[in-house]
Specification:
The protein has 456 residues and is of the alpha/beta class. It has helices at 9-14, 27-45, 50-59, 67-70, 86-89, 93-100, 119-128, 150-168, 188-201, 218-233, 238-268, 280-292, 321-329, 433-437, 445-455, and strands at 75-76, 132-135, 145-148, 177-180, 274-278, 305-308, 336-340, 349-350, 358-359, 364-369, 385-394, 403-413, 425-426, 431-432. The chain is globular.
Length: 456
């Protein structure tokens, strides 16, 4: 007779990804299993991720017996930007690959590093061997380089469809025309998510409309960041500056033209159920272009939906920008989807339609830290709201450590939401410490940076 092996704590939580009631578990109900899962993941990874092993030894952490025990071994979001900038500027792909090895649980082997043309080529070669690199935008500094595994890519396919269906009420019935109203960074995670959504929601006879701008690659972002740095420190030549300004002017012209092209595509397909996606700034600009051409809600299907990624991203829009977008594209109540997540995480926290709060899934352990990111604030998981620096442990992550200290200030509530779900949720007042205070210093970031530079 076969022996039935009980699932581990991590599996107990992550297998809820397809459960319809996954947000109905209270934090108090989940806490014991979450702590066991944190300990399970820590024990498995502490000797496999060099940076984690260093942090654990430094803090004297040998096991996780409570949520506060995990705090000293969370990584600040800056940890994934801690590679020396010279590795990129001087195209030291061997050194950058070695740096990746300090944050990965899997040895990086078998990657041909000879004759690499640029960073995009380096990322493609890593992907071919099952090491997937996604990056943050890097528009205000170096890009964070986040390594992921095939298991992470497979998880993203499931999670992205489930969170959108849950948060918008749109069933994956492949009956929509997908319209992109924003340029998207061409990184493995974004590509994987986009394909999964297309397979679930798009009518296969209606090709997705991609915002008509050149693809944003990691290489193009990196070149922009490097050039901005050279201009700032006075090392850019007059010709380099002239070329940079010409390129910027050309890109702006393409972006300006894309607004009108997207508006015309939406108008041409106004008889179809639309799934419109983008950032608020782009959605507003396209909506205004649609209005300027004489079209509004009355011209569109009454079951359209919108997928909004990210916040305002410092865009200056009128107070009624959301209402303007909804009324232009005929988005009914409940068909507006927003998701709280970040490249450093592998899972999303969808906003509910009734309570307007972002819901934390069972396999994500949320934490509120002090401003410095050094200590867990007192939590009462039986109820009540607490505000401070957000940190999360995403137990679904496989290709890197799941614990991250973010740059976000959030309000986390352990009380039941107005929508009736009992799980922890985040209020829709998320702000970045860098925007609130002009700078953001996390206490352990300097220590980690010094270690990684030494290890690399």
């Amino acid at each position: 007779m076969a022996t039935v092996v009980e699932a581990g704590a991590v599996e107990k939580l992550t297998r809820l990804v397809d459960a319809a009631d996954r947000f109905d578990y209270s934090a108090a109900q989940l806490r014991a299993t979450q702590v066991a899962a944190l300990d399970e993941r820590f024990a498995d990874r502490v000797k496999r991720i060099k940076l984690l092993g260093h942090r654990a030894a430094e803090a004297g952490i040998e096991r996780i017996g409570a949520v506060e025990d995990i705090v000293p071994v969370l990584f600040p979001h800056t940890a994934y930007k801690s590679y020396p900038e010279s590795f990129l500027i001087e195209e030291r792909w061997d050194r950058l690959t070695k740096w990746l090895g300090t944050v990965s649980p899997y040895p990086i082997t078998g990657v041909d590093l000879d004759g690499i043309a640029d960073i995009d080529d380096w990322i493609a070669r890593l992907s071919a061997k099952g090491y997937f690199i996604s990056c943050s935008s890097g528009t205000t500094g170096k890009s964070a380089m986040l390594i992921a595994s095939q298991k992470d890519m497979d998880w993203s396919k499931i999670d992205t469809v489930n969170v959108f269906a849950w948060g918008s009420g749109v069933k994956p019935e492949r009956n929509r025309k997908m319209i992109g109203c924003a340029p998207v960074a061409t990184v493995p995670k974004n590509t994987t998510i986009g394909e999964a959504q297309r397979q679930a929601f798009a009518n296969p006879d209606w090709p997705r409309f991609n915002y008509p701008v050149p693809p944003i690659t990691v290489g193009s972002l990196t070149r922009m960041v490097v050039m901005r740095k050279k201009i700032a420190d006075g090392t850019a030549s007059p010709q380099e500056i002239a070329d940079f300004e010409a390129t910027s002017k050309e890109r702006q012209a393409i972006l300006d033209a894309a607004i009108g092209l997207a508006a015309e595509e939406i108008i041409a397909n106004r008889d179809k159920k639309l799934m419109v996606s983008g950032l608020w700034s782009g959605l507003y600009a396209v909506a205004k272009a649609v209005r300027d051409r004489g079209y509004s809600a009355k011209d569109f299907d009454p079951d359209n939906c919108v997928y909004v990624g990210g916040g305002l991203k410092r865009a200056l829009l009128p107070p009624d920008y959301q209402q303007f977008v909804h009324e232009t594209f005929n988005i009914p109540a409940g068909r507006h989807f927003q998701n709280y997540s970040m490249q450093e995480l592998n899972s999303g926290m969808p906003k509910c339609r009734e309570g307007g709060r972002y819901h934390v899934p069972p396999w994500m352990v949320p934490m509120i830290l002090d401003k410095a990111g050094d200590a867990l604030l007192a939590h009462d998981v039986s109820g009540g709201e607490i505000e401070g620096r957000a940190a999360f442990f995403d137990l679904s992550l496989d290709g890197r450590w799941g614990g991250i200290i973010t740059g976000d200030k959030i309000s986390l509530d352990y009380s039941p939401c107005a929508c009736g779900r009992k799980g922890a949720s985040v209020r829709d007042n998320i702000a970045r410490f860098a925007d609130l205070e002009g700078d953001d210093k996390i206490g352990c970031a300097g220590t980690i940076d010094a270690y990684v530079r030494g290890a690399a």
